[in-house]
Design the sequence.
C-alpha cells in the first residue's frame, strides 16, 4: 500500500486522496540535490581532460619539453624533432587520448653514476609521453599546490633548495639543534601505485586522466635491452614524477604537522628538528613507523639517525660553528665533502691531459662549471677552501699546457717566449721530472702566471665568489661570520 497517501470510497468509486508527507519530500529534495551534484562532478571531470588537451596548454607543454632538451626515449625520437611530429600527428594523438585508447610506450632505463660506486636508475619516457605528462602536470598542479605544506620546498613555485637550507638554519638557530635525519631508500622505486592513485582521486575525478596516469605508472621499463614489468615506483626523468612524489609525501607533511614537529622537506629529502635528544628519539621512531606502515616506503637505517648540525648535511650544505665569543648555538653554512668531491671530479674531467681540447675551450668549460657551482652555494663560508682549489686547478692547467708542448725543442722555444733565459730554457725543457711535478715547480709557476692565464679567459674561483657574495647583500642566515676551512 502506498505510504505517501490514503485511499477512500466515495459514490462507489475508489479515489486516491493524496496526503503530503513533509519528511518524504525532504528526502526527495536531497536525492535531487545529490543527483545534481553528481552530474556537476561528472561534468567537471569531463572538463579536466578537455583542459589537458587545450591548444594553449599543449603548446606550453611542448615549449617546456623542448627547452628541457633531454635524451630520446625508446623510440629514438629527439626533442628537436618533437614539434614536427606533433604537427603531423596532432589530430590522431588528440583522438586517442580523448577517446581513452592511448597507450604509452615503454620507458628507457639508463643507469647514471650516483657516487661511491653506486648507480641510479633513470627512467626516460618517449618525448611524446613527456609532452602529455607535462600537459597533465600543468593542469593538476594548481589543484594540489594550495594543499601542500609551507615547509615543502621541492619542485614548487617560488621555492628552492636555498630557501629550504635557510629554513633549516633558522630552526637550528632557534635552539632546535638535534636533527633527525631519515633517509628514504630508493624512494622513487618504492612508491605504491594504489596508494598514490587513491590520493590523486581525492582531487581528480576524471576517469580518462586517471587511466592515463595509471598507464604511465604501469608502463614497462627497458633495462639493458630487457623489458621489466613495473608494479610500484615512479620513473625519475618523467615530468609528472615531481608532482606525484609531492602528492604522496604531503601525507608525511600532514603527519609531521599533526605531531607539531619542525621539519624541512625537499622532495624525498627531509629532516626533523627538536630541542631535546629524547624528543628527537621519539619523533624518529614514530615517523619511521608511519613511513613503513602507512606509506609503504623503505627507510635506510644505516643512513638515518640523530645528529648535531656540524655532522648534518642537507642538499649539499653543512654547518660549522661560528666560534664567536659570547655566542652559542650559532652556525654558518659551509659545503659538504661530497659536493667538494663532485666539483673536483668535474674539473678533473675537463683538465685531463688526454682530452683533445685547446686551452681556451677548457677554460670556457671550467668557467661554466665554477659559476654554476658557486651560484648554488652562494653565501656559504668557503673562501679558504676555494683558495686551495684555485691553486690546484691552475696547476692542472699548467700540466695540460706542458703536455701539449710535447717535444723538448718546442718546450725550449715556448719557455724563451715566456721570458726565460736561454740556459734555463734548455735545462728545463730537457728535465726528466714528471709533468705534474713540473706543473707545481717554479719552471711553470714563474712563467705561466695567473696574469697570463687570465689573458686566456681564466677567472679564479675566489674572484667569482667575492662578486657573488658581497656581505651587504647577503641575507642574515647565510652571512659568514668567520671563515671555516
Sequence:
Amino acid at each position: 500500500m502506498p505510504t505517501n497517501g490514503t485511499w477512500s470510497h466515495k459514490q462507489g468509486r475508489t479515489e486516491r486522496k493524496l496526503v503530503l508527507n513533509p519528511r518524504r519530500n525532504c528526502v526527495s529534495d536531497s536525492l535531487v540535490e545529490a543527483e545534481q551534484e553528481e552530474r556537476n562532478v561528472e561534468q567537471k571531470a569531463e572538463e579536466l581532460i578537455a583542459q589537458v588537451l587545450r591548444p594553449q596548454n599543449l603548446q606550453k607543454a611542448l615549449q617546456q619539453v623542448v627547452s628541457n632538451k633531454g635524451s630520446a626515449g625508446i623510440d629514438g625520437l629527439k626533442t628537436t624533432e618533437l614539434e614536427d611530429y606533433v604537427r603531423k600527428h596532432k589530430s590522431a594523438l588528440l583522438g586517442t587520448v580523448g577517446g581513452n585508447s592511448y597507450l604509452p610506450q615503454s620507458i628507457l632505463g639508463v643507469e647514471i653514476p650516483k657516487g661511491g660506486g653506486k648507480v641510479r636508475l633513470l627512467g626516460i619516457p618517449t618525448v611524446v609521453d613527456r609532452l602529455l605528462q607535462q600537459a597533465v602536470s600543468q593542469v593538476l598542479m594548481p589543484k594540489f599546490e594550495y594543499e601542500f605544506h609551507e615547509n615543502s620546498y621541492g619542485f614548487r613555485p617560488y621555492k628552492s633548495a636555498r630557501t629550504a637550507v635557510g629554513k633549516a638554519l633558522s630552526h637550528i638557530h632557534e635552539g632546535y639543534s638535534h636533527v633527525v635525519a631519515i633517509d628514504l631508500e630508493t624512494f622513487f622505486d618504492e612508491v605504491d601505485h594504489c596508494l598514490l592513485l587513491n590520493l590523486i582521486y581525492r582531487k581528480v575525478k576524471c576517469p580518462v586522466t586517471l587511466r592515463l596516469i595509471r598507464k604511465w605508472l604501469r608502463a614497462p621499463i627497458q633495462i639493458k635491452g630487457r623489458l621489466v614489468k613495473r608494479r610500484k615506483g615512479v620513473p625519475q626523468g618523467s615530468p609528472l614524477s615531481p608532482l606525484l612524489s609531492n602528492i604522496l609525501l604531503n601525507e608525511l607533511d600532514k603527519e609531521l604537522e599533526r605531531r607539531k614537529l619542525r621539519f624541512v622537506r625537499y622532495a624525498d629529502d627531509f629532516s626533523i628538528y627538536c630541542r631535546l635528544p629524547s624528543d628527537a628519539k621519539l619523533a624518529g621512531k614514530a615517523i619511521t613507523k608511519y613511513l613503513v606502515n602507512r606509506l609503504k616506503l623503505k627507510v635506510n637505517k644505516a643512513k638515518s639517525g640523530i645528529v648535531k648540525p656540524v655532522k648534518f648535511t642537507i642538499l649539499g650544505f653543512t654547518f660549522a660553528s661560528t666560534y664567536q665569543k659570547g655566542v652559542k648555538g650559532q652556525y654558518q653554512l659551509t659545503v659538504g665533502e661530497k659536493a667538494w668531491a663532485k666539483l673536483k671530479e668535474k674539473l678533473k674531467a675537463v683538465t685531463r691531459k688526454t682530452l683533445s681540447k685547446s686551452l681556451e675551450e677548457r677554460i670556457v668549460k671550467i668557467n661554466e662549471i665554477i659559476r654554476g657551482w658557486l651560484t648554488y652555494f652562494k653565501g656559504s663560508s668557503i673562501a679558504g677552501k676555494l683558495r686551495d682549489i684555485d691553486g690546484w686547478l691552475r696547476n692542472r692547467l699548467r700540466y695540460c699546457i706542458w703536455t701539449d708542448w710535447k717535444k723538448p725543442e718546442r718546450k725550449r722555444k715556448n719557455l724563451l717566449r715566456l721570458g726565460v733565459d736561454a740556459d734555463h730554457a734548455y735545462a728545463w725543457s730537457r728535465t726528466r721530472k714528471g709533468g705534474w711535478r713540473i706543473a707545481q715547480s717554479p719552471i711553470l709557476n714563474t712563467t705561466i702566471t695567473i696574469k697570463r692565464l687570465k689573458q686566456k679567459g681564466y677567472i679564479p674561483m675566489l674572484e667569482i665568489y667575492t662578486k657573488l657574495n658581497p656581505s651587504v647583500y647577503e641575507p642574515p642566515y647565510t652571512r659568514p661570520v668567520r671563515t671555516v676551512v
User: Anything to note?
Assistant: The first helix runs from residue 22 to 52. The first strand starts at residue 6 and ends at 10. Residues 1-20, 472-485 have pLDDT under 50 and may be disordered.
